[in-house]
Amino acid sequence: MPLYLVRWPALSASLVQADNEDDLLDMLDQVADPGGCTFEVYSGPLWIDFDLPFQIRDARPKEQAPTDASAFIVEPTPEFSGEICPEMMSVSVPPCDASSDMLSEVVRGAFPDLALFMEDLELDGDGNGDTDTDADADADADDPQALSEGLSTALRDELWLFVRFVMAQSELAKRDDLEARIMKAARVTCLLPAMRRALAEALETAPARRAD
Question: What is the dihedral angle through the alpha carbons of 178, 179, 181, 184, rounded to the nearest 10 degrees?
Fold first, then answer.
């Protein structure tokens, strides 16, 4: 089952595992309109941590070796809302090379213009200029205004997908054909695989119209 790197129209991305591209689109539809998304198979590094909102406190007397779990007390952290469900877990990435490589790969795949800007400046993980090979990059890294302008330009260049999505919404609003009405009812800008299957089945089972 492939893992996909999904770029949403806004400045966000997701890693989603699905059977195939049709299954991926149907899954993305559970969250938002997948019509404005782009995606590709992701085969890079992956490391994501899941933490329960509880902490362990040692309740043993001094220098006493633990013999069972009763020697420890489990207490909720401030992040615990009181709701018991899988969603109570927090998601994060650890401070290690594998997760750093993963984030770099995600940026390159989902935000190529931002990745080029970062590579030009040879930014480190904290966002501080750390190049010693390019004089212009050195100057930009040392100039907060130039750095801010460069970042703004890179992010603006990433908006092409958002612009295309807004245009698709505008074009759909002008249409009144059957497919458009289906998409409007589902609040999407593309006919999803499940919709195509349902439409095909409906047309196959519809009684033939007799010409008068």
Answer: 180
Identify each DSSP E strand in 18-107 by its residue range: 38-41, 49-51, 54-58, 72-76, 90-92
Q: What does each C-alpha distance from 209 to 67, 178, 203, 206, 212 come to in angstroms?
A: 80, 17, 12, 9, 9
- For residue 67, CA distances in Å to 36, 64, 159, 207 come to 57, 9, 59, 74
| CA separation for the pair 130, 45 (Å, rounded) | 24
pLDDT (mean) for 94-123: 92
- Give me the helices (H) in 72-143, please: 97-110, 112-121, 135-142
Domain positions in the chain? 1-48+99-111+159-203, 50-92, 112-157
How far is it, in rounded angstroms, from Cα 175 to Cα 181? 8
> CA–CA separation, 166 vs 79, rounded Å?
37
What is the value of pTM for the model shown?
Answer: 0.79
For 157-188, the pLDDT digits (tens) are 999 999 999 999 999 999 999 889 999 999 99
- The rounded distance, in Å, linking the Cα atoms of 52 and 92 is 11
Classify residue 177 by burial, with Cβ atoms within 10 Å: 0-12, 13-18, 19+.
exposed
